[in-house]
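**User:** Hello, beginner here. Are you able to go through the protein record under this note? It all follows right here:
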Amino acid sequence: MRALILLLLSLALPVSSFAAHAAPVKDDLSLIELPVKQTSDAPMVIFLSGDGGWAALDKGLSTQFQLNGMPVVGWSSLTYYWKKKTPEQVTADLERILDDYQTRWQRPRWLLVGFSFGAEIVPFVINRLPEHYRQGLVGAVMLSPSTSSDFEIHVSDMLTHKARSYPTEPQVKTIRDLPMLCLQGADDDDDDRLCPRLNQPNVTTVTLPGGHHFDDNYPHLYGAITSRLNLRSDPQPVER
């Protein structure tokens, strides 16, 4: 009997060892967590950063969500897209994020937010998500998007704007059943802005003061988003 037990344990070791060393989705995708202490029915936020990584606007707006009871999973585009991805790869990784955080944080409802480079990714993943993930999606927010994406970080794109491989506008036009916001700065000098091209009923275009970064007015930006999507604030202590 003792020999049998030892044999069974030895057979189990490779599986157990692999499980122990498997990278959690947070580490695997270099995610940023902004949790809240108490559960509520407010949605969690998946935030896709700009090509500069987890920088000022991404941090500032995410903090506003967190302070108002909406936990945030931040996803750095600079880290993730340093090597080229496909829309299908990104969608598969988003599903992993949802599987993990909807369970751990007990938040079946979620909001997808993207800034600049991240905003251009938003419609591609929505169109590829299976229906059971779409059911909990309360809305999508695109902040300062342009009309195309490459699913890869190019340093030259941070200095100049040029046509890229994946047009964004056709992807938005196929989404008809989800409230979407497209926010742009009144002083944004990007000639390739997506927001002015969108006029479908489920997409609300909002022009706010400032340029590409909305004058860094994160409380105003938060209010513009939540008021138009009818999202209730639930202020509560945050984890430190």
